[in-house]
């Protein structure tokens, strides 16, 4: 077994080389024989199953976060990023811990080798280099100093997830460790994700910390004209007992008239619009309740089947779109959310079985942190001629709505959230 590098208690996030020793090939390694056509089809089938599981996982996680926030406030997270770091750890999970994780992630029935190769294909597609968009995933496992990682697990993590395994002296430097981890996450996400781990979250008893941060930057297929951005009122609930009580806040609205896919769902009482990013590689889908105070009713209806049916609602229409500018960088402490979803043993030092990571059952996850960042503004492709708004249907996002960003090549949900207050950027 080979020991991972030990991070010094500094703010610099140095890379940690994790290459396996020469002449010791893992079953899943860059030098393994090329896949057969049959194997290729099997991996593709596994990718499709991953995506289906991703949508189920996204909705369940959304409901758990919503419950934690008592049904109010902004929400923003990346289900694909959380699932990726969980799957990375799943590679070392055994017995009941493995079963719990598979059930929650919706990957029951996929053997470990096919699963991780499917993740490799999916992540390569999502993160492929492009001038049209940027997706930066920063996933890393930090264990307490003294743990030895198994060589085959190190190979798996590097080859299929391009992630890092690191060691740090939590016992001696708990608070300094937090600075090191936060600095690394900030560096990896182009300084967009800051303060991932809050003060006091790491203690001398910390054993293993999972770090998961993601940053997305995409330009609209048709950009909004900055000259048409105007201040306007956004209606919010006051949070008081009487639902009819409301208030308004002033926000910046982007305005554009163009051809968009849009539609109505009269049963759920929502309007839906799909706004494509450059080259239609990704899209933002907005589900806007017809009433300012009925977002909770929409959220009660959210299921995998409902999201699958969204495209059937949409037709190309001339739309006069009014969308608030907003930025969100939300932090989520995941262990309680995942435990409520059914992943319990992973965080229990008596029950956790991560023997595939170190060869022993001494390790459990102490903390798991996730943060995602989004900036919604006018930027897009080069300005194009816009349509007259005469006869265009109004789509005014002037009250709370649910939204998600999907990858149109794979169907994976990259981000999911709710915008209740555009001015709340925390």
From TrEMBL:
Q: Where is the composition biased (Low complexity)?
A: 25-34
The record's GO CC annotations read: extracellular space
By its UniProt entry, which Pfam families does this protein fall under?
Answer: Serpin (PF00079)
**Alphabetized InterPro entries for the sequence:** Serpin_CS, Serpin_dom, Serpin_fam, Serpin_sf, Serpin_sf_1, Serpin_sf_2
**From the UniProt record, which GO molecular function terms apply?**
serine-type endopeptidase inhibitor activity
Compositionally biased spans, kind Pro residues: 10-24
For region Disordered, the annotated ranges are: 1-42
* Family listed: Belongs to the serpin family.
Protein name, UniProt field:
Uncharacterized protein
């Amino acid at each position: 077994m080979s020991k991972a590098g030990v991070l010094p208690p500094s703010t610099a996030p140095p890379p940690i080389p994790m290459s396996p020793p020469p002449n010791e090939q893992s079953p899943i390694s860059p030098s393994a024989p090329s896949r057969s056509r049959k194997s290729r089809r099997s991996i593709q089938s596994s990718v499709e199953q991953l995506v289906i599981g991703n949508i189920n996982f996204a909705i369940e996680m959304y409901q758990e976060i919503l419950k934690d926030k008592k049904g109010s406030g902004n929400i923003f997270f990346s289900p694909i990023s959380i699932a990726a770091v969980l799957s990375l750890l799943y590679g070392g999970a055994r017995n009941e811990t493995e079963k719990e994780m598979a059930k929650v992630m919706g990957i029951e029935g996929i053997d470990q080798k096919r699963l991780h190769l499917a993740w490799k294909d999916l992540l390569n597609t999502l993160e492929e280099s492009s001038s049209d968009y940027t997706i930066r995933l920063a996933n890393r496992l930090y264990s307490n100093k003294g743990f030895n990682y198994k060589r085959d697990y190190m190979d798996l993590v590097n080859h299929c997830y391009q992630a890092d395994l690191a060691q740090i002296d939590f016992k001696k430097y708990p608070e300094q460790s937090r600075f090191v981890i936060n600095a690394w996450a900030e560096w990896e996400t182009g300084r967009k994700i800051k303060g991932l781990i809050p003060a006091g979250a790491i203690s001398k008893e910390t054993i293993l910390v999972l770090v998961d941060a993601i940053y997305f930057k995409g330009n609209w297929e048709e950009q909004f004209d900055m000259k048409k951005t105007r201040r306007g009122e956004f209606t919010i609930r006051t949070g008081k007992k009487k639902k009819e009580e409301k208030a308004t806040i002033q926000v910046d609205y982007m305005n554009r008239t163009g051809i968009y896919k849009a539609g109505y769902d009269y049963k759920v009482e929502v309007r839906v619009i799909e706004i494509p990013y450059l080259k239609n590689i990704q899209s933002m889908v907005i589900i806007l309740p017809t009433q300012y105070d009925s977002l909770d009713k929409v959220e009660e209806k959210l299921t995998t089947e409902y999201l699958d049916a969204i495209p059937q609602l949409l037709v190309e229409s001339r739309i006069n779109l009014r969308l608030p500018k907003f930025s969100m960088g939300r932090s989520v402490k995941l262990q309680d959310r995942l435990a409520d979803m059914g992943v319990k043993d992973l965080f229990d030092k008596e029950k956790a079985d991560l023997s595939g990571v170190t060869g022993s059952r001494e390790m459990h996850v102490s903390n798991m942190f996730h943060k995602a960042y989004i900036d919604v503004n006018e930027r897009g492709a080069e300005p194009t001629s816009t349509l007259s708004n005469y006869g265009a249907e109004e789509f005014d996002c002037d009250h709370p709505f649910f939204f998600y960003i999907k990858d149109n090549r794979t169907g994976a949900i990259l981000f999911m959230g709710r915008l209740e207050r555009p001015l709340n950027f925390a």
